[in-house]
Amino acid sequence: DILYHSAFNFPALLAALGPQGWDRLRDVYMQLSKTEHYEARQTLACSLHEVARILAANTAFNLESVLCLFLIDGVEIKMGALGHLGDTLTWLTPASRVRCLPMIMQVFRHDGKQWRTRELMASQLVKLCHLFPASIVVNSLLPQAVEWAHDPVAGVR
């Protein structure tokens, strides 16, 4: 399927062209991230951190909106984005990270019905604590960590 293979190979193509090639690829990326083809969106969500790393200095890439788009999508797409959330947020500016935090916390609070989902989200907390100021860590991330510390599944704890 062309859409899936295009999405799967997108980070490699972007790496080959470099950040200067983003202007030619931006529209394709945005169309792929909004396509009806579920597997294409999922592979883009899983590789968002790689695209963010390549485009770190490029302010024309609105990583914040793409991340939020994937976080409101289906479960597997959301899990793809959450799997490397800390790595993705590393490439955002501190102000953008703070703007993404309410969406991230909403996902953490409301989408943890399955223990594997909670385990994946809990695995990202350490990385997130290093990316946010202490006040945000104490007020937002710490309460979530305490809640997951009481989880009945050992892997989440």
UniProtKB/TrEMBL annotation:
Protein name as annotated: Uncharacterized protein
Keywords of the record: Repeat
Keyword Hydrolase: no
UniProt xrefs under InterPro entries: ARM-like, ARM-type_fold, PP2A_Regulatory_Subunit_A
Record lineage: Eukaryota, Fungi, Fungi incertae sedis, Zoopagomycota, Kickxellomycotina
Highest rank taxon of the organism: Eukaryota
One annotated GO molecular function: protein phosphatase regulator activity
GO cellular component labels: cytoplasm
The keyword Repeat appears for this protein: yes
